[in-house]
Amino acid sequence: MSKVFVITPVKNAVDSTLECANAIAGSNYSLKHTIFNDFSTEETKSKLQTEADSIGYQLVNLEEITDTPSPNYKLVLQMAQKEALSNGIPMLVVESDVIIKENTIFEMMAFLEEFPKSGLIGAITVDENDNVNFPYLKFKSMTKNVIKTDRSLSFCCTLFSPGFLKAFDFMELDDTKDWYDTFISKKSLELGFDNYVLMKTRVLHRPHGSRPWKQLKYTNPFKYYFLKFWKGMDKI
Q: Is residue 189 part of a domain?
């Protein structure tokens, strides 16, 4: 029986997604992995369907469930929460631009077992040179192995405890937002849980690999903020 439910929301970037899925399949922990395909191209959809059995993940095509245009992160979180709760297991988000290690999930689950009052547990993100990178640059200078934090966690590679999943119904998430990292991080604290970042549990992160337009934040910030505020994209 699976001991953790791993989910990966996907919007194109099929090569990085398959690399992510292969890394999850190589984990030394019992898991179920579902990729939620959020209106990707037909080419991406076809490749994901072709590789599903050989790699070992379930594919859910959101176009078969909703007419709401991408991003559908709220729907993904709601569906995943329901399945995790029905199986009585934690939920782990591993985004498609993240590559975990063989021991990543084992280490995160071991920490949860030791600290059952955890709400969210995040693995620190690093680049190819093992340097802490976006979105956790705020913790770059930290020397502790474990950081208990009131600051927002990113969902790049984040474990949701069963206790928190039971305490807060994702059906209450705000329909006007696209992303929920900040809101859910705060909600976990409000409900009396503790949030942690594990500095020794390091995962490779290639920022925004699944949504290349967000690279504009660094290369053309004017255009990025035009899309964000005037076009209503990337609402958090």
A: yes
Percentage helix, strand, coil for the chain under 3-state DSSP, each rounded to 5: 40, 20, 40
Which tens digits make up the pLDDT trace of 193-230? Answer: 999 999 999 999 998 654 554 555 555 555 555 555 55
Residue 121 lies in a domain: yes
For the stretch 80-106, pLDDT in tens is 999 999 999 999 999 999 999 999 999
First vs last C-alpha separation in the chain = 35
Range of the domain at 188: 5-211
* DSSP β-ladder status, 98-99 and 91-94: unpaired
CB atoms within 10 A of CB 53: 10
Comparing C-alpha atoms, which of 68, 66, 47, 65 is closest to residue 57?
47
Q: What is the pTM of this model?
A: 0.89
Total residue length of the chain? 236
